[in-house]
Design brief:
8 strands; about 45% helix; six-stranded parallel β-sheet; two-stranded antiparallel sheet; alpha/beta
Length: about 230
């Protein structure tokens, strides 16, 4: 096994078409009676705790009050998200080529597949399950592991080493995502980064912020595999 491949979720593999955001807003209102400027606030490239903190700070909350509510916020959010996913109007969209790419990568003995996402872990699993994605991700680092995105790559690398005994480093690690934050968190530990323009950022923007490679989407499986491997 020579390559650790870590995928972001939202904007990279799938979209919940605002279902997760609606659940997040209801949870914030239930726990804090406030959701801040959530309608205009950017979620992409951030961890769930970071998003909640930013929204509440903008609403005038002190950090101590914010953190005190976190223990209630996450189970409330998960319950709201499960409710949202059960609604008949909710559609989780998988981006072009994702299923084919994951299937091809999962068949390789030289690749360990994982997740690197700002979602709290249970929220990430809800999204993966709702999208019908295969359970091929054997390791991961999540927003529940650290509030800053740049804390997460080392968590994933350490977990991969615990699982396999292999110390993945440098270009043995590929971080794949749709935002400059995905690129910068990979750069923080000197690994390979692949941008995909299925979110809010273009190929040109992702390359400009330092991605080693960037694709419009994963619809060309062979090209995506070549970029990763």
């Amino acid at each position: 096994m020579r390559r650790l491949v870590l995928f972001d979720i939202d904007g990279t593999l799938l979209s919940t078409n605002l279902a997760a955001k609606r659940a997040f807003q209801r949870a914030m209102l239930k726990v804090y009676n406030e959701a801040g400027p959530i309608d205009t606030h950017r979620f992409d490239g951030k961890t769930d705790p970071q998003i909640a903190r930013e929204l509440l700070q903008l609403a005038g909350f002190e950090d101590a009050i914010i953190e005190d509510g976190f223990t209630r916020l996450w189970p409330t959010y998960l319950a709201e998200f499960e409710h949202e996913l059960a609604e008949p109007h909710t559609r989780v969209t998988v981006y072009p080529g994702v299923l084919e790419l994951l299937d091809r990568l999962a068949q390789r003995d030289d690749v360990l597949l994982g997740l690197l996402t700002g979602n709290i872990e249970a929220g990430a699993q809800l999204k993966i399950s709702a999208a019908g994605l295969p359970r091929t991700f054997r390791v991961g680092a999540f927003g529940s592991d650290g509030e800053r995105r740049d804390q997460l790559p080392q968590v994933a690398v350490d977990r991969a080493r615990e699982l396999t005994g292999i110390h993945f480093r440098g270009k043995d690690v590929v971080i794949i995502g749709d935002t400059p934050s995905d690129v910068s968190c990979g750069q923080s530990i000197g690994v390979q980064t692949l941008g995909v323009a299925t979110g809010h950022h273009s190929v040109e923007e992702l390359l400009a912020c330092g991605a080693d490679t960037a694709l419009e989407d994963f619809s060309d499986t062979e090209r995506a595999l070549a970029a990763i491997l």
